[in-house]
Amino acid sequence: MSISVKGDASTVEKLYYLRVLRRRWMILVVSVLFALTSAALVTARTTPQYAASITLIVSAPEQSGNLNTAYQAILLSQQRVKSYAALMRSQGVTAGVARRLGDGVTAEELQERITAQVLPDSVLLRATVTDPSAAHAVQVADTLGTEFSHYVDGLERSGTSAHPTVKITVADGAVLPSAPVSPRPVRNLGAGLVIGLIVGAVGALLRDRTDTSVRSARILSDLTASPTLAAIDFDRRAGKRPLTMRDDAESVHAEAFRSLRTTLQFGGAGDLPRSVTVAGSAADEGTTTIACNLAIALAESGVRVILVDADLRRPRVGDYLGIGEAPGLTNVLSERMPVKDVLRSWGSGSLSVLPSGPIPPNPSELLTSRTFRATLRKLEGEADIVIFDAPPLLGVCDAAILAHNCAGAILVTRYGRTREEHVVEAAERLAAVNARLVGTVLNFVQPAGHTPLVVGVPAPAAGRQRVTAMGEGS
Q1: pLDDT digits (tens, 9 = 90+) for 106-153
Q2: Which residues form the Polysaccharide chain length determinant N-terminal domain (predicted)?
């Protein structure tokens, strides 16, 4: 049983990582592209380096010709070869090489270009010289072999002895390299790809762990202690054609608005509210699109609907419905025109529209006036439901005023953008004015981006009790 549990946990964890990478694919792509671009630039700007190598033999000449002397000579050679690898880059050797070359290269520069290593289990010493010029690399390597042989010869002569105790012989001279050893484009780009993938994956996971945006209908219900009425999928065409219920009535997107209509009419929240405010926490959460399409969907089912553009700061209902700049709510609230003169029928159904009218200098004062409350009651008497498209709750107080006066409020939340703390703050503002929260709508949902949704079901008792849900008392 324990093995099965561990296996299931591992599978769930892997699926989580895959979902995160799929959701945050842009971070991964940007990271990989940046790493590959950086690797390509570094490769292009790196001066090519050529390497030329020589092989030296370290030997101790035997003088008596017996086996014991030969063995001692081999041991001496093996001992010397280890120290010669470091000695080859010494100031004395490189200074001599620089004098022999006479081309302006300094001893310090040669020390940086020379590497030496002892071949395993041998008395062979390999020296490698790197240089921007292939021919010069060969010249330096050959000169190094000659100079090092003379240098060791001088070190190893003891007293007046005519023969050195250890001898350096060049076994293999330098060969002209045909290709540079650096940069290596394929290796650099491969390393860039791997680094980009690692950094991108880590960045995606960190972004996901620190992201507090709402990505689940269940979380949205918990945050507001109210049911999620619908989850509206993201539609790329909605920006240019926001009236899905009119322009694409048979689409899956239109079905989502019909689901919202049905939940509002027959869900667990109770009867259809006489008036409802549609508002979001912040701007660009799609409240106008939700309000317009919900109004059209309700009108299609025979419900008498009045849609009011109550966003007196950035009105958009008129543009969406093709009404334009017509007299509207502000004309009524300023007592310049009666409601019947500005209320306009739209479409072939039972939908009427009250545009915003001219943008006033004092929207909040108009919405708190007795004239507005009287207008609201009059509109409720002429329709089965009055839908108000409102400005953001966290921006100004207009939406809270509307929600207080209406029979209910719908909180629209944008998937993947609206932060949880903003949802809670918006719910608290509704609660502060004794607003009646009908439910929430999760908008712009990406495909397979939210948990399975049972619309109209109140949130669990463990949720944050910020607002009294409709049907539970006001």
Answers
A1: 999 999 999 998 888 788 889 999 999 999 999 999 999 899 888 888
A2: 19-99
Q: Residue 185: how many CB atoms within 10 A of its CB?
A: 12
CB count within 10 Å of CB 19 equals 13
3-state secondary structure 388-440: EECCCCCCCCHHHHHHHHCCEEEEEEECCCCEHHHHHHHHHHHHHCCCCEEEE
pTM: 0.65
Res. 227: pLDDT tops 60: yes
Laid out side by side, the sheet with 437-445 consists of: 228-233, 437-445, 408-414, 275-280, 385-389, 305-309, 351-354, 344-346
Q: What angle do CA 25, 29, 32 make, to 5 degrees?
A: 140
* DSSP bridge partners of 351: 305, 346
Flag whether pLDDT at 472 surpasses 50. Answer: no
380: burial class by Cβ within 10 Å (0-12, 13-18, 19+)? middle
Q: Give 298's contacts (C-beta < 8 A, 6+ positions apart).
A: 261, 264, 265, 305, 351, 384, 385, 387
Query: What span, in angstroms and rounded, lies between the C-alpha atoms of 35 and 202?
Result: 14
CA 314, CA 312: separation in Å to the nearest integer?
Answer: 6
- 460: region left, alpha or beta (phi > 0 left; psi from -120 to 50 alpha): beta
Q: Where are the domains positioned within the chain? A: 2-46+184-208, 50-172, 214-445
Judge whether 424 and 184 are in contact, CB under 8 Å: no
Work out the mean pLDDT of the chain and round it to a whole number. 85
Phi-psi category of residue 382: left, alpha or beta, with phi > 0 → left and psi -120 to 50 → alpha: alpha
The upper half-sphere exposure of residue 47, i.e. CA atoms within 13 Å in the direction of its Cβ, equals 6
Please count the residues of the chain: 474
First to last CA, the chain: 50
C-alpha closest to that of 470 among 435, 423, 421: 435
Phi, psi of 147 (to 5 degrees): -65, -40
> 50-172 belongs to which homologous superfamily?
EIF_2_alpha (3.30.70.1130)
Give the DSSP H or E segment for 74.
helix 67-87
The Cα–Cα gap between 221 and 243 comes to: 27
CATH class of this structure's domain 214-445: alpha beta
Read off φ and ψ for residue 196, nearest 5 degrees.
-60, -40
3-state class (DSSP) for residue 231: strand
